[in-house]
Write a structure and sequence with these properties.
9-stranded antiparallel β-sheet; 210 residues; YegS/DAGK_C; Tumour Suppressor Smad4; EC 2.7.1.-; kinase; Diacylglycerol/lipid_kinase; alpha+beta; Lipid kinase; 26% helix; 7 helices
Length: 210
């Protein structure tokens, strides 16, 4: 999906700037990491992040989401979950995570709905952890979004703290950020998004959902 055309944003720079000034502004939430880096859609961590980053573009173009499974199987020798501790409002979990998704939006790179309950204007972050207890079933479930999978841990909070004894990498809307300590918080209405008047907030939410 190419976002500007879908939002009705003109390709011509002068017309796009006019829309930014006089367009219909809708407030959506934004997430901030360690009081510095921001993202709008999704933060992903764990082995799944490494797989989606390292999977060759030609393989993704040819096979789509299946390419991640194939590349993951090829990397079995380095398939290690990340041990970490995650805290939030009324949430605490500690263990081995194969995939971590913290979403303001629902869909991660590759088309997976990693956080299917996320909304971009509810003041909350949705958390989904795929534990590393059973590596292959968990890797497959990241693509199938199996709601009955016992290795899926879920939570919702306006903030999450992640601590790890070793360096882990999060992908923030495509930008990598590495470290051992992460504080991720939601900034309600942090972005005023200028769109054409014909696009409603309901339609906008759907753009981040499918």
């Amino acid at each position: 999906m190419i976002l500007p055309p879908v939002l009705g944003i003109p390709e011509a720079l002068d017309k796009a700037l006019k829309l930014a000034i006089a367009g219909n502004a809708i407030a959506i939430d934004m997430a901030q990491v360690n009081k510095q880096t921001c993202f709008i859609n999704m933060a992903t961590g764990g082995f799944g992040t490494r797989i989606t980053t390292e999977t060759p573009e030609k393989l993704k173009a040819a096979l789509g989401g299946v390419s991640y499974i194939i590349h993951g199987l090829m990397r079995m020798d380095t398939l290690q979950p990340d041990r970490c501790e995650i805290r939030g409002e009324n949430f605490h979990w500690q263990g081995d995570a194969l995939v971590i998704g913290i979403g303001n939006g629902r869909q991660a790179g590759g088309g997976q709905q990693l956080c299917p309950n996320a909304l971009i204007n509810d003041g909350l972050l949705q958390l989904r952890i795929f534990t590393g207890d059973e590596i292959i079933p968990t890797l497959v479930s990241t693509l199938k979004s199996d709601e009955d999978n016992p290795n899926i841990i879920e939570g919702a909070s306006s903030w999450f703290d992640i601590q790890a004894p070793h360096e882990i990498t999060f992908n923030l809307d495509g930008e990598p950020l590495s470290g051992q300590n992460f504080h991720i918080e939601i900034l309600p209405g942090g972005v005023a998004l200028s769109i054409t008047t014909r696009l409603s907030i309901v339609a906008l939410i759907k753009l981040f959902s499918v």
